[in-house]
Amino acid sequence: MHTTILVTGATGTVGCEVVKQLSVQDGDIRVRAGVHSIIKGENLKRLPGVEIVEMDFEDQESLHAAFTHVDKVFLITPFAKDQVHMAKTLVDEAKKKGVKHIVKLSAMGADAEPGIQLGRWHREIEKYIEDSGISYTFLRPSSFMQNFVNYNAESIKHDGKIYMPTGKAKISYIDARDIAAVGVEALTGEGHEGQVYELTGPEAISNSEAAQILSDVTGKQVEFVDVPEDAARKSMAEHGTPDWMADAMMELYDVYKAGNSNQVFDSVQAVTDKKPHSFRQFAQDYKQCFV
User: Fold this and answer.
1) Which pTM value belongs to this model?
2) Rounded-to-integer distance, Cα 213 and Cα 221, Å
3) Where is the signal peptide, in residue numbers (predicted)?
């Protein structure tokens, strides 16, 4: 008997990796990749056993179709002001359709008190899942290594600079591939019900150290530039970042600078029996994005 797993946010940094890794699992697993646009999900169609389904959080019929005959869900909601509402809508639909297990992509520090806005949003969703009665696993990763590709690649390529307001803070960056590996094990393995996994890479490094590693790997000089808070806010505004998002990001940067994101956990290896990628490994694998 096959198991159908729905991955929401399937074209995102982590969602895409989850779909890829599920598609090569042994056993009768069917992967349903939930995407906002079928066009954006074209690349996922090439993966074995992957079905693409369009999901609109405001269209109940699309959610009904996406969740029909689904056994398990990897739950990702976009970084949006109404992400809690979106997630609750998805959990409600999962409950209606008899979903047996939800693996939620959360964030490190989600249970901190009073915490920051990003964490409070994630914790509210976690509590809603707990109260739903559906079996769950929560993944709480640190900042993604792939963010250097998503947000810094252009400045690294053209200016040889990493611009971030993080000072000398050390951050236990994690590779999205490792987050996905833990998620896949939680979806396909046993004993993960009710578990909360704090996920990090194998080390905490500063962005100056990250710049040096990128310099070594690419053969070009890369420097870290610590951006003052006012300049960071101005840059966000110039790029159309809404105030609520800028506020949330600046809170996160303050957490970094306070030294609250330098913890290193062994959860990745404990769950997957594989060592997590180091930042140097990540830089080598994604070298072409920076040169």
Assistant:
1) 0.96
2) 10
3) none
